Amino acid sequence: MPAKQPRAWQRMLSGRRLDLLDPTPMDIEVEDIAHGLAFVARWNGQTLGDFAYSVAEHSLLVEDLFTRMYPAAPVKWRLAALLHDAPEYVIGDMISPVKAAVGPGYDELDKRLIAAIHIRFGLPAAIPVKVKKQIKKADRISAWMEATQIAGFSVTEANKFFGEPDPQVIEGLSIRLRPPVEARNDYTARIETLLREC
Question: Within 10 Å of residue 81's Cβ, how many Cβ atoms?
Fold first, then answer.
């Protein structure tokens, strides 16, 4: 008798069954992404405050930073910035040292999921390298802000690991720790706004 294949799909609150090994755009819903990301903690939860700093909150900040840095960027790339960590709604947020320990399997899973997510929202499966680098730059600035404001890093440490940000880019921005429902609702609203503008 052949060995039973392990279950590789997850049932979402929307009722969709997302196959993690072969994700399809049809099984991806905004509400599932927003809900999942609002409950996934950045920094493995090792942050100050009464609420975890969620990936949903981080994604909103990255999109804001990206827009500040590249104001002429098309709306579709702002949407890509908001969705840059969307696969984490099902695979969680692994800190860099854990990703390195897990190896290439994590990256492959992440790539399959982000491709399906992009297609679901009208983006190319793989975004241009230039845009990906721009989003990564905004992501690193967000990480610097998080590190220095809520994760206990000194400015010197954060500069070493994430690079020193342009003060004008982060002017007036601060990390917000809120209940997951607020981050979820804002993330959902932001996706819907960007989709309408696309």
Answer: 29
